[in-house]
């Protein structure tokens, strides 16, 4: 049996004018800034006006480690939001915006799939409302002003060898990872080595997603450390004088984007920090605003729970004063079989033994999430060729780990297929049984924070870091940054730093390659293993299949 592609389903959506979607949330038309007929930004004045309202329940959707078999975390997030509305709840969805790099690379878009999508899908996965372009521009302005300051006399005495601020572009381009700039003679400045990260790894992206308002945004931008002098004195963005102009460029990007699901339920899509490099959650301002407008807010954290959920709990919730009422952990029978050793080409055949063998990864995530004091529900994102025996094997395994698993068919049936999951999630959220707490305190030494995550979440035996890394952490502690959380940058495919090591490995080590201080965002980035802050394209990138058809419609996005 053939099924429609995501883009075909999205194109058939019966969208409602965005003013009607805003009306569901009580947002007056004058506080919606439309981008066409089906998307709009919500004004800061309106956001300010609802701050005294009571908060709804926050529901986090996360997943097992991703496999080529697919898990469907965003699809489940959207499906659960639609399911909650179907059973009579006032619910909305908060997800991240899509980066162009993965869209044209291998991962694809970030709008959900099947009959659990947010629309307009094409615009969301491309330029959308221009937020990422604004972030790239603000980041690039600071880059230009640093080199310009050095060119015109270097009054701050920046050591060109110690410029910490790299450049960004929202595309996977491995050729830009390490470059030499300012070649060509006196008129072009002083040659130095630098490099590019992808925009979603930019500290500006992280700052926008953690800032509460424009004043907080400018302060955080000013706190960015861009370089050091020969005496190792930090030079800040505000010393360069770029924070005001950067805030101007980001003024509109700070406002959350309102769109709708295929079933015309409201969704905020705002911000997009990478989860294997940055903190992997949508913006604080969108989440906090949604909690004032809806009784249930369903949000997601990127990649597996060892990355996105850990950072959601230890960084976003800590910084924003948020606390989830329940966590939904997404898994698929297909992924269990892959973790159990089945090749992708053989996933269609029933294999209960492989399902059982592959459940260790799921079990590890359940245990980790429970350690934050939050109840866990496993959502089995149903594929049409899953068998009853395979589903039963997953349910039995989850029961043995003190949680419950519920099959959800939102991809195929929309909210009709997710109603059971929504009913149980709402019951748990309403029971107020969560006792959320991060897994390490603010005053723990930075290296111990890294060890805590490595040992408690990854189940590593040790963290490997040379004297340079350890001394750098101690220097930052002495400079007053010791209370910051740590943001682990590692592969998303494994609990370890080896992407080929699936399941629930133990006895491994976590090698720390370098550490970066994101003083404006308010965390320490810990780069582990071979992870790159500028991804590359695969041998056959998705861009090869993307184009316009004879009717001028976009084809190939997924």
UniProtKB/TrEMBL annotation:
GO BP terms in the entry: tetrahydrofolate interconversion
Record carries keyword Nucleotide-binding: yes
Catalytic reaction(s) noted: (6S)-5,6,7,8-tetrahydrofolate + formate + ATP = (6R)-10-formyltetrahydrofolate + ADP + phosphate
Pfam families to which the protein is assigned, alphabetical: FTHFS
Source superkingdom: Bacteria
Pathway: One-carbon metabolism; tetrahydrofolate interconversion
EC number: 6.3.4.3
Keywords: ATP-binding, Ligase, Nucleotide-binding, One-carbon metabolism
Family stated for the protein in its record: Belongs to the formate--tetrahydrofolate ligase family.
Official protein name in the record: Formate--tetrahydrofolate ligase
Gene: fhs
């Amino acid at each position: 049996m053939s099924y429609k592609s995501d883009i075909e389903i999205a194109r058939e959506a019966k969208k409602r004018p965005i003013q009607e979607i805003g009306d569901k949330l009580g947002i007056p038309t004058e506080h919606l800034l439309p981008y066409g007929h089906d998307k709009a930004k919500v004004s800061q004045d309106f956001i300010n006006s609802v701050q005294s309202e009571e908060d709804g329940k926050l529901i986090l959707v996360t997943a097992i480690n991703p496999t080529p078999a697919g898990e469907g975390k965003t699809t489940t997030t959207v499906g659960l939001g639609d399911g909650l509305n179907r059973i009579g709840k006032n619910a909305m969805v908060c997800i991240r915006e899509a980066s162009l790099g993965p869209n044209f690379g291998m991962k694809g878009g970030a709008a959900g799939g099947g009959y659990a999508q947010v629309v307009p899908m094409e615009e969301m996965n491309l330029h959308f409302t221009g937020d990422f372009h604004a972030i790239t521009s603000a980041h690039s302005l600071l880059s230009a002003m640093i080199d310009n300051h050095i060119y015109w006399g270097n009054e701050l005495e920046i050591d060109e060898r110690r410029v910490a601020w790299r450049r960004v572009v929202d595309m996977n381009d491995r050729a830009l990872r390490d470059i030499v700039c300012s070649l060509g003679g006196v008129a072009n400045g002083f040659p130095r080595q630098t490099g590019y990260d992808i925009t979603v790894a930019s500290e500006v992206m992280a700052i926008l997603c953690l800032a509460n308002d424009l004043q907080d945004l400018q302060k955080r931008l000013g706190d960015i450390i861009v370089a050091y002098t020969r005496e190792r004195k930090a030079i800040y963005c505000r010393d360069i004088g770029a924070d005001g102009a950067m805030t101007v460029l980001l003024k509109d990007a700070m406002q959350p984007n309102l769109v709708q699901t295929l079933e015309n339920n409201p969704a905020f899509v705002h911000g997009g920090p990478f989860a294997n490099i940055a903190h992997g959650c949508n913006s604080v301002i969108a989440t906090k605003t949604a909690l004032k407008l809806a009784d249930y807010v369903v949000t997601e954290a990127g990649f597996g729970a060892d990355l996105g959920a850990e950072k959601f709990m230890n960084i976003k919730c800590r910084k924003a004063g948020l606390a989830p009422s329940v966590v939904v952990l997404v898994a698929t029978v297909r992924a269990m079989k892959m973790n159990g050793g089945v090749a992708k080409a053989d996933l269609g055949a029933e294999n209960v033994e492989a399902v059982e063998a592959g459940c260790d990864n799921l079990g590890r995530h359940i245990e980790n999430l429970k350690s934050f004091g939050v109840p866990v529900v496993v959502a089995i994102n149903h594929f049409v060729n899953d068998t009853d025996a395979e589903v039963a094997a997953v349910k039995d395994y989850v029961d043995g780990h003190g949680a419950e698993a519920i099959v959800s068919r939102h991809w195929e049936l929309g909210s009709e297929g997710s109603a059971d999951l929504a009913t149980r999630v709402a019951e748990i959220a309403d029971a107020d049984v969560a006792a959320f707490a991060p897994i390490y305190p603010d005053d723990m030494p930075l290296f111990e924070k890294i060890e805590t995550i490595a040992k408690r979440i990854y189940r590593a035996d040790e963290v490997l870091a040379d004297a340079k890394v350890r001394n750098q952490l101690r220097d930052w502690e002495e400079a007053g940054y010791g209370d910051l959380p740590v943001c682990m940058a590692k592969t998303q495919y494994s609990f370890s730093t080896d992407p080929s090591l699936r399941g629930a490995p133990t006895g491994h080590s976590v090698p720390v390659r370098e550490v970066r201080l994101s003083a404006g965002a308010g965390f320490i980035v810990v780069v582990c293993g071979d992870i790159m802050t500028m991804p590359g394209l695969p041998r056959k990138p998705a861009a090869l299949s993307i184009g316009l058809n004879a009717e001028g419609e976009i084809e190939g996005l997924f």
